UniProtKB/TrEMBL annotation:
This is Probable dual-specificity RNA methyltransferase RlmN. GO terms for cellular component: cytoplasm. GO terms for biological process: rRNA base methylation; tRNA methylation. It is found in: Cytoplasm. It catalyses: adenosine(2503) in 23S rRNA + 2 reduced [2Fe-2S]-[ferredoxin] + 2 S-adenosyl-L-methionine = 2-methyladenosine(2503) in 23S rRNA + 5'-deoxyadenosine + L-methionine + 2 oxidized [2Fe-2S]-[ferredoxin] + S-adenosyl-L-homocysteine; adenosine(37) in tRNA + 2 reduced [2Fe-2S]-[ferredoxin] + 2 S-adenosyl-L-methionine = 2-methyladenosine(37) in tRNA + 5'-deoxyadenosine + L-methionine + 2 oxidized [2Fe-2S]-[ferredoxin] + S-adenosyl-L-homocysteine. [4Fe-4S] cluster binds at residues 117, 121, 124. Keywords: 4Fe-4S, Cytoplasm, Disulfide bond, Iron, Iron-sulfur, Metal-binding, Methyltransferase, rRNA processing, S-adenosyl-L-methionine, Transferase, tRNA processing. It comes from Desulfosporosinus acididurans.
Length: 360
C-alpha cells in the first residue's frame, strides 16, 4: 500500500487516508495542524491523538525529516541551515530574520527546490556542481517547517511570514512540485503564508513564466536578470542562450499584463559590471516594464574571480538607474560571514572544509 510523506499532504489527502483507515474526519484536521502549523517532526510529539489511532495512521503516513547537519548564525541575524535528506543528498536553506530590527517584523525563509542545478550561472556555487534531482513537495515545505521547528525551541511564537524560492535549483524547472508546495504553505490551518508573501525567482524559463501567470497570478516573480545584453547575460546566466533577452522581456510584459503585478529584476553587481554604461543600458531595457530593480553586490564565491564592488560604485549605479526612471533598491548584505550565498555551505561541507557542527 502507498505510503505518504506527511509533510506533502494537504488536509484533503489526510481526510481520504483517515476515511480509508476508518478514522473520523476530525483526525485529519488535527494531524494537519500538528504537521503544518505546529511543525512537529515525529509521531512522539503529537499529543491529542490516541496511541491506537497514531499506530493506524503510521501504517499509511510517515515523517521523513532530514537531518540537520549544521546551522550557521550570522551577526546580522541570518541563519543558514544545511540538511541531509533521506537519500543522503544535502540542501541549504536560509532564514533572513528582520524581526529584531525595530521597523520590521518579517521572517523570510529562502528555500531550495532542487539538489544542485543544471543552469550553471557563473557566480553560483550550486551551479558549479551540476544537477542531481528535483525536491519533492514535502522536502520543499519541510525546509520552512524545519526552520520553524528549530527556532521554536528558543522562541515559541516564531512564525515564518515570507518564503522566497531563491535557494539551490531553478524553481521553474521543478514547476509542479513548487506550485503544489506554495498551495500547501498557503493553507489557513497550516503555515498560512499569504500568496503575495511568496516569491519565485527564475533564471528566465520563458514558457513557465507565462504559465505561472495563468496558474497562480498571486505569487511574486523575480527574474535573475544580471545583464542588459545577450552576450554578457549568456556568460553569466546560460539559460539566456535558450531564451534570449528579447523573449524574456516579452514574457515579462505578458506576465505583467495578466497578473498586473510588478516583477523584481535582480541584478548581481561585480566590480566589472557596476559601471555607468551598464546602468544606462539596463534603464533602457526596463523602462517600459512594470518592475523594480534589486541590486545585489556579489558575495565572493571560491572558484570564481568575481569581485564585489565598493559601496560608492554601488550607489552611483543605483543613482543612474533612478535617473533613467527605474525604481531601484540596494539589497542589504546579509549573512556574508556565514557563506549565505546559494550553494556555498554545501560545497564547503562536501569538500571537508568546515568547522565542527554548530549547536542549536
Ligand atoms: S543562480 Fe539559481 S539558476 Fe543559477 S545556477 Fe544557481 S541555483 Fe541554478
Amino acid at each position: 500500500m502507498e505510503m505518504y510523506d506527511l509533510r506533502s499532504c494537504t488536509e484533503e489527502t489526510l481526510q481520504t487516508v483517515c476515511g480509508e483507515l476508518g478514522l473520523k474526519r476530525f483526525r485529519a484536521a488535527q494531524l494537519f495542524q500538528w504537521v503544518q502549523q505546529k511543525a512537529v517532526r515525529s509521531w512522539d510529539e503529537i499529543k491529542n491523538i490516541s496511541t491506537k489511532d497514531l499506530t493506524l495512521l503510521s501504517s499509511r503516513l510517515n515523517f521523513y525529516p532530514p537531518e540537520l547537519v549544521t546551522e550557521r548564525r550570522s551577526i546580522d541575524g541570518t541563519r543558514k541551515y544545511l540538511f541531509r535528506l533521506q537519500d543522503g543528498e544535502m540542501i541549504e536553506c536560509v532564514l533572513m530574520d528582520y524581526a529584531r530590527e525595530l521597523t520590521r517584523d518579517r521572517h523570510t525563509v529562502c528555500v531550495s527546490t532542487q539538489v544542485g542545478c543544471a543552469v550553471g550561472c557563473a557566480f553560483c556555487a550550486t551551479g558549479m556542481e551540476g544537477f542531481r534531482r528535483d525536491l519533492t513537495i514535502g522536502e520543499i515545505v519541510g525546509q520552512v517547517l524545519d526552520v520553524t521547528h528549530f527556532i521554536r525551541q528558543e522562541d515559541q511564537d516564531f512564525q515564518v511570514t515570507n518564503v522566497v524560492f531563491m535557494g539551490m535549483g531553478e524553481p521553474l524547472l521543478n514547476y509542479e512540485q513548487v506550485l503544489s508546495a506554495i498551495m500547501l504553505m498557503n493553507q489557513e490551518r497550516g503555515l498560512n503564508i499569504g500568496m503575495r508573501r511568496m516569491t519565485i525567482s527564475t533564471s528566465g524559463v520563458v514558457p513557465r513564466i507565462i504559465q505561472l501567470a495563468k496558474d497562480n497570478p498571486q505569487v511574486g516573480l523575480a527574474i535573475s536578470l544580471h545583464a542588459s545584453n545577450d552576450l554578457a547575460r549568456s556568460r553569466l546566466v546560460p539559460m539566456n542562450r535558450r531564451y534570449p533577452l528579447a523573449q524574456l522581456m516579452e514574457a515579462c510584459q505578458e506576465y505583467a499584463k495578466i497578473t498586473r503585478r510588478r516583477i523584481t529584476f535582480e541584478v548581481a553587481l561585480t566590480d566589472d559590471n557596476a559601471n555607468l554604461g551598464e546602468a544606462e543600458a539596463l534603464a533602457r531595457l526596463l523602462k517600459d516594464h512594470l518592475g523594480h530593480v534589486n541590486l545585489i553586490p556579489v558575495n565572493p564565491v571560491a572558484g570564481t574571480d568575481l569581485k564585489r564592488p565598493n559601496l560608492e560604485k554601488l550607489k552611483k549605479f543605483a543613482h543612474h538607474l533612478e535617473v533613467g526612471g527605474i525604481s531601484v533598491s540596494l539589497r542589504e548584505e546579509r549573512g556574508a560571514d556565514i557563506n549565505a550565498a546559494c550553494g556555498q555551505l554545501r560545497r564547503q561541507w562536501r569538500e571537508g572544509n568546515h568547522e565542527p557542527i554548530d549547536s542549536i
